[in-house]
Design brief:
Number of strands: 12
Low-confidence stretches: 11-15, 179-187
Distance between the termini: 66 Å
Shape: elongated
Largest sheet: 6 strands, antiparallel
Helix content: 25-40%
CATH topology of the largest domain: Arc Repressor Mutant, subunit A
Number of helices: 10
CATH architecture of the largest domain: Orthogonal Bundle
Number of domains: 3
Order of helices and strands: HHEHHEEHHHHHEEEEEEEEEH
Radius of gyration: 31 Å
CATH class of the largest domain: Mainly Alpha
Strand content: 15-25%
Mean pLDDT: 81
Amino acid sequence: MAQTTQAQGEAAKRKRTRSPAYPYINLEGAITRAREFYSKEQRNAANVSVATKHWGFVEDSSNGAQTVAALISFGLMKDEGSGDKRTVRLTQEALRILLDTRPDSSERVELIKQCALAPKIHKQIWDKWGTDLPSDAQLRHTLLFEWETPFNENAVDTFIGEYKTTISFAKLGESDKITEVGRDSTVAEKVKIGDFVQWVSQGMDQFRELKKIKGFSEDGAYAFFEGEKTGAPVGELEIGEAAAPPPIPPPALRNPLTRQHADGGRAMRQDVFSLDCGDVTISWPVPLTAEMVVDIKDWLKIVERKISRSVDSPINAEEIK
């Protein structure tokens, strides 16, 4: 009985869906990262690997990738390109927040509130409860068992802490009417490992061909692909269909073919022998004299020795006679 219960528990874990996408860091931390980026690059774009080093992360680290994804989610950054050529730069919203030093700036306050609700999951929770959040225990239960896309139990507490810290930092009140910013998409809730997708950024395809998803960042905001070192925000992915495999070529002809040169020259015959690893092809002009045939036979013996030296394991002469 215990074994059955354990097996059911393991099966449930395998069927568990990943959490909705949420920022890896809270908004205050994201603005701090934006300021660090600005101190190095100002309004310029920088390669993602360079940006992650500005924050003290190792190139291609998951922390760096998730930090980029968080800033994009809050609307503080935008990206262009893909793979090793992918770059990021601060948005106008980020620049206005960083450079508006007026102590009584209502515009800066409003922008921070907009950024706080830019992530889709933040907006959903704010629309549902506003400032009247239930207790942490009840909120956790709702997100685990009643939310349309349930949270992973290993991520829900981290998200609740991030959300509450962000809302508090933005000083959101019940009367606030926030204009949405950011680029989240319902695609973020649909893509899964094994899907073939196109990454669309700034209205342009970033992949030459569809890429297969091999995994996600811990917060679910970033997808990683086979054959790519870096990932892409799930909110910018469009699901496609894998390209059909190339048609199987017809079996190689085993009977000799005779072809006449277009320029009226000597005709050629050809014989093809198919192997699992490829085809062996021999061509010769026709007609041949008896002396030519003897020369070809001598040459074929040399070819035979060359072929013998290319096999995977040693063979003796008797085996190939």
